[in-house]
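Worked example 3 (structure in, sequence out).
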């Protein structure tokens, strides 16, 4: 089959193109710009890429046109495909039709932790010798891309709740027909798609109620919404929690965090599974590990001892507490966190391993539709106040009505009222200098945003090195 992907340079669409090539299809695609590392990934996979969008890209006519969710109904190439009567499909529908037949999809969904948890699930299943297929939204450490066809029965998918396409206005994860499912959390997000809390939670309700009775649900019950979701599923359900005194099926206890290591014991329905160790920092990552372990044990039948031995080897995912470098005694990290809960727990976890006088400095760049709105105004202030200092960048979106925008001046004032320190950067170019003025040897700086950091990290490290050299 000849498949044409519109928007092939995006992470999801590019990984889908690689996956389809591995499945034996002829694949080509178009985009307005293909950047590293996806350009080389597509080239190595043998995907033909056309620069720019045009109806001419659809000749010769493909058997299927996959339209990414970045395309509007008036997109010149997508509109041409529809008008010509070509077969069109969304990314998730293409996965279901061309890749997932005969496989057992394991989906990781939730507001937070999807990429890390799905990547960890892949690692654990591979360590058990199952050769799972997978498609996740990030780049796993030591791998060129976030996808692999695999030969085993399992196929791991990061279950995104964002909509599928302009002609398919429902959450991507509803297309995958999950056999096993992890739900890490449910907090209102993606306000451009889900304007109300009711509309957001409904997508997750549909997901869990759609599981087959022979399937398996693993859900975090540290929040009330998780408990409610757990009660809706017809599948075998296992709960997990960081609260050792709770009634969850899987409980993380005796949590210890040091520089570069997290240790915990895991209590399960079958008893104490013993001690586990992970390279991932933060209590939230211990919870992510617990969910992946629970699904492997309860649904995939993996021996817990195999998982215990495998967990320490997992190196993580790009842009999740990823160390960009160190200069002048200051460590600089890049993190995808953009929801206040994710920012808060990451700051808390990154404090582990700091020297006694070391400080945690957060750089917040609001870029997502949720982050640029005021719906979590107070929560952002509380999250950033957990850091010793915060640098706040301008909003990346200027098309949001003034009355709905995140108030950056109020955010900075509220951070300081909560005991933190806040600096408003007038533009992106001012951020490296602001960090360099704040940071001192022994500090750790973390950049939070769901958008590409560009040269911000490199520019910050350069200034920190220059300052150290001149002192």
């Amino acid at each position: 089959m000849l498949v044409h992907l519109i928007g092939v340079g995006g992470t999801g669409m590019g990984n889908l193109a690689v996956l389809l090539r591995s499945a034996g299809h002829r694949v080509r695609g178009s985009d307005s710009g293909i950047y590293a590392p996806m350009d080389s990934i597509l080239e190595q996979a043998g995907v033909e890429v056309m620069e720019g969008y045009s109806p001419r890209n659809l000749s010769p006519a493909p058997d299927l046109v996959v339209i990414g969710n970045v395309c509007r109904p008036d997109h010149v190439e997508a509109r041409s495909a529809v008008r010509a009567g070509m077969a069109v499909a969304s990314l998730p529908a293409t996965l279901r039709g061309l890749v997932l037949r005969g496989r057992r999809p394991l989906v990781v969904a939730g507001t937070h932790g999807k990429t890390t948890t799905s990547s960890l699930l892949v690692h654990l299943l591979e360590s058990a010798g199952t050769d799972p297929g997978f498609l996740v939204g990030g780049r796993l450490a030591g791998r060129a891309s976030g996808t692999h066809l695999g030969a085993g029965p399992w196929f791991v998918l990061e279950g995104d709740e964002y909509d599928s396409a302009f002609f398919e206005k429902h959450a991507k994860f509803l297309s995958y027909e999950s056999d096993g499912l992890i739900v890490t959390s449910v907090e209102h997000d993606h306000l451009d798609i889900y304007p109300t809390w009711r509309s957001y939670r409904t997508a997750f309700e549909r997901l869990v109620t759609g599981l087959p009775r022979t399937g398996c649900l693993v859900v975090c019950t540290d929040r009330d919404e998780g408990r409610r979701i757990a009660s809706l599923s017809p599948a075998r359900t296992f709960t997990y929690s960081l609260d050792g005194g709770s009634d969850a099926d899987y409980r993380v206890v005796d949590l210890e965090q040091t520089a570069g290591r997290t240790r915990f014991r895991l209590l399960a329905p079958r008893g104490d599974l013993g001690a586990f160790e992970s390279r991932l920092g933060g209590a939230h990552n211990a919870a992510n590990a617990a969910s992946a372990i629970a699904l492997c044990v309860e649904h995939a039948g993996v021996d817990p001892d195999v998982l215990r031995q495998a967990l320490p080897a997992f190196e993580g995912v790009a842009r999740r507490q990823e160390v960009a470098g160190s200069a002048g005694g200051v460590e600089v990290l890049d993190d995808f966190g953009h929801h206040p809960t994710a920012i808060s727990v990451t700051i808390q976890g990154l404090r582990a391993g700091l020297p006694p006088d070391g400080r945690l400095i957060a750089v917040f760049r609001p870029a997502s539709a949720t982050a640029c709105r005021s719906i979590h105004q107070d929560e952002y202030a509380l999250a950033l106040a957990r850091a010793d200092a915060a640098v706040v960048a301008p909003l990346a979106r200027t098309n949001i009505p003034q009355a709905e925008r995140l108030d950056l001046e109020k955010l900075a004032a509220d951070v300081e009222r909560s005991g933190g320190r806040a600096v408003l950067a007038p533009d992106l170019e001012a951020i490296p200098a602001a960090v360099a003025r704040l940071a001192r040897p022994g500090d750790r700086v973390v950049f939070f945003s769901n958008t590409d950091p560009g040269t911000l990290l490199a520019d910050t490290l350069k200034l920190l090195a220059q300052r150290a050299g001149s002192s």
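Notes: The CA atoms of residues 140 and 252 lie 25 Å apart. The chain has 14 helices and 23 strands.
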